[in-house]
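Subgroup meeting minutes
Present: P.N., E.W., G.H.
Scribe: E.W.

1. P.N. recapped why we're keeping a running log of single-chain structure predictions: easier to compare across weeks, and new members can see raw inputs and outputs side by side.
2. G.H. added today's entry (192 aa).
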Amino acid sequence: MSRRSRKSRSDEVWLAEARRASRGRLQRKKAKAPSLAPLVIGGVLIGAGLGWFGPEMMQRFQNSRWEQVTSPAVGDSLSARFGFCHTGGGTNCVVDGDTFWFHGEKVRVMDIDAPETHDPRCAGEAALGARATQRLQQLMNAGPFSLESGDRETDRYGRALRVVTRGGESLGETLVAEGLAREWDGARHPWC
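Output recorded in log:
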């Protein structure tokens, strides 16, 4: 090898070593862009969780909202315009003298027993049941009310059991005082 080739070769080696050594100082590390995969996966999991558990959570929220709203310290803050719904489900309607639908939930007035309007045992029960139904509708439409829980949340038919009050007074007791219902004693008694 000639002297010139050796020098060129050593210059090339030296230059390559110098470049390699300076790379760490001269080159900056490129920042990695954050991955969107965890966000997308998290969003999908949250969406699936809401789809799976959402209805149950909404039911718990509604029940807890009722409990908060119906505490005596808060006062009467529930209201709706009630119609009649003699059969099937409904929204904000009175079924009979002790049952109504409120915001999609069937509610049984737990402190009274009213005459039956569905399959009454006699004409007297049917007439009294119709009057009790009309009066409950009037009472429900008379202004804001509260729904208070008792010792049980639901009855054997899945209806929410609540005492309906206005100004701390039971609307069920109003029906009893007017002769349109009886105080609930845990058993049904004939109206005929």
